[in-house]
Amino acid sequence: MILDQGRDAVAAVADLPSSEIEPNITYGDLDLGSARRLVVAENVEHIGVLYSASALEAALDWLDQVFDHQGSGWIDARGAWLGLYFLGVVLLAWPLSRLLPQVSSEPLGAGLDWRRLLPAALLPALLTPLILRPFPSDFLSIAIADYIALHFAVYALLTWLMLLLIRRRPSENQGPNQAAGQPEQRGARISVSSFLLALLAVILYQTLSIALPTDLYVAAFLPDPHRFGILAVLLVATTAWFVADEWLTRGRGVFAGGYALTKLLFLISLMLAVVLNLEELFFLVIIIPAILILFVVFGLFSGWIYRRTGHPLVAALANALVFAVAITASFPIAD
To answer: Of the candidates 38, 66, 94, which is a domain's last residue?
Structure first.
């Protein structure tokens, strides 16, 4: 599809059918400003193409021709170094997390075993795309962001409903005061000042070590002021989901694989939404790998933060901000 669009764009100035357009051939006239060339960058997607050697070489060659310039031919090859840097950031977060203050005297969370966590995780994943199928998703000016906001919000609502249901129906091994993590957690001592300090420290680390370098050296990651209204809408939705998800997957005695399971189910839920509305939501297919990377990196952060602070809200709020900012900055303004 994208290749066909490229051929059509070149054919517009070549006076040829699109099927006859060949890659790496210049059509039109450079002097008249009508020149166009189709270049195919192999094995990359919409972000990787920015750093593809073939794409960079083609762009450099084109600019040299346009401005009648002969440079050194140097091509940016920052990919491996950026990968090494971000790997270091992730690894450094582990020991640094031990410096965070303890927020709760007891590990807070629903504390569900796999039998109780599975339905609470599975039903929202299946129901959310079905519920949203007939709903319009064009209330925000950024492409796809409106649907993602709705998906996060509805998914969160369903998760909270499942948690409420579990709270009211304790399992055979739990008393009525031990459902969904209610129990001895009522006596947990929570330090508000430690919570605020931990949250601020996490946000600062994520901003200085990931958000700013990504925005400077990889791709847009920090939104412009004219997108702040959209950021606010997305932040409400992502906060609702991350708070619900962190509570669902944390707590004493919780199923160890629950956190990874809910992230996998969220991605499956997005893919199901695409299947149900391929024409309008196809762009989600492109960004699902990016969401997966964010889930892995910030999921690691979340686990380390929770084990130190004992409170799921620290990572929930920090990660909600990261996702809202990334989505707001990454998607184009819709026509």
So the answer is: 66
